[in-house]
Amino acid sequence: MSAPQEPRAGQQPQQQQQQRPISAQGSVASSEITLTRWQKIENVIWDGGHRTPQERALVRRLDIFIMSWATIGYFVRLLDWANVTNAYVSGMKEDLHFTGADYNLLSTFFIIGYVIGQVPSQMVLTRVRPSYWLPTCELLWSIVTFCFAAVQNVRDVFALRIVMGFLEAPFAVGVLTIMGSWYTPRELSKRIAIFYSACYAASMFSGYLQAGIYNGMNDHLGIAGWRWLFIFCGVISLPFSLYGYIAIPDNPYNSKAFWMPPHQLEFARKRMEACDRRPPVLLTWAKMRRIVTHWPLYAFTAIMICQCLVTQPLNYFAVWLKSLNRFSVYQVNVIPTAGQAVGLLTTLAYSWLADAWGGEKRWKALLIPAVVNLVGLIIVSIGPGFGATLFGYLLNGASWGFWPICFAWTNEVCASDPEERAIVIGVAQTMGQAFVAWVPILILNTAKYAPKFTMGWSILTGFSACQLAMVFVIRWLVQRDKQRAREQQQEGGFNGHHDRGNDVEGGVAAHGNVEENTAEDSENVVPTAPEMTKL
Known about the structure:
The protein has 22 helices and no strands. By secondary structure, it is mainly alpha-helical. Residues about 1-20, about 495-505 and about 510-535 have low confidence and may be disordered.
């Protein structure tokens, strides 16, 4: 009998690989791996030390394709959002004769299109692969961006903002759903943070870009500098919209991405099963009824409405600076980038801390940006002086890190139900933006309340306090459901695979009564590689 062959360098013996358990965090159990000092450091910085070579290779592929597409795509979208503000203070207001509350309506019409587009987009995604639908919307979005350079009046701007909002509606929810379908709880928060950090990078870049264009290209070829800004944005966005057709992998149960080998796709499914993330099922009325009667839909929607409102001050930073009549157009474009820089750094710091704490302690990381924002809003509400007010606006930038941690928490709480996870994220995002469509018009009207916006910031201070309270409410609800889950387990009401819910914040435990899962859901499980309707 011949001796067994030794494994090649860098490979684990096949039997040994099969025996290594996958933890509830979705990675090979850390107790099975002896970490070097560097791997321990890497485990903190980039969650890498606890993984096998096979898992490292899988996550590396996901990062290369999903993160590059998502981050660059979000950067381009937020670049447009920031461009509107920069264009407004760089000549668009005067050239197109904006009056009264027209500045507020720029956001309102965009959000109207955004809210209108959410439901149709989600319906389309139940029949069409994200890898088809999302890049197509991006491509049309790029074309509309070019059209902004040709607007002749305020009505043209408002019409294009509605179309822009409609086309952008699928993107953020689609990205968060895709990330939640591939990454484990240990990996998710920091990657959502990187995704959202593109927001600050875009706002900073837009300020520098507009300042440079205004100085170097204003009236070049007879075109105003603010129009050149939209032309440059369109040139940047067009190629990356095409990249989405190859970068988006759909989900582990139906992916046809050319860059995902079959053996890694199978391993990706096992990772998700270890996190209690099940295959998607066709949405039925019974499933929908359970979702709308379960608390996460309402709790996370409420906290997201608060978050979308309390981050508004940073959008009015440039308006406040311009109203002081002490800064040039160049300075008005550049100074607010300090708030974006603060937001970028603190968002990454909060999310790394959240992933380092993980599970039971992740919710505590939400308290930091919530408290920081509350302090900042109190300062800008009082308006004690230029220096203090400037500091208050910068603190508002430091509060934007609440978003990625909250969405990571949502993914964990709804981990065992992909349909609920998608609907909760979609509804929370939509309702948050819906409130931004009308609340600023009432309390942040630039014609009535600029530059201090005392009443508006005072009202938002109340929303900030409610947001802080909601963190504790959701934490209590999660713990209550986990306690119920443990009691049901002791009574024999759980199936064997549900006991991992105790290891992760949320999961099946947070889902409450798991006995509600019916045979109807089992019959509607989406096949491993379904033939989906094509565009």
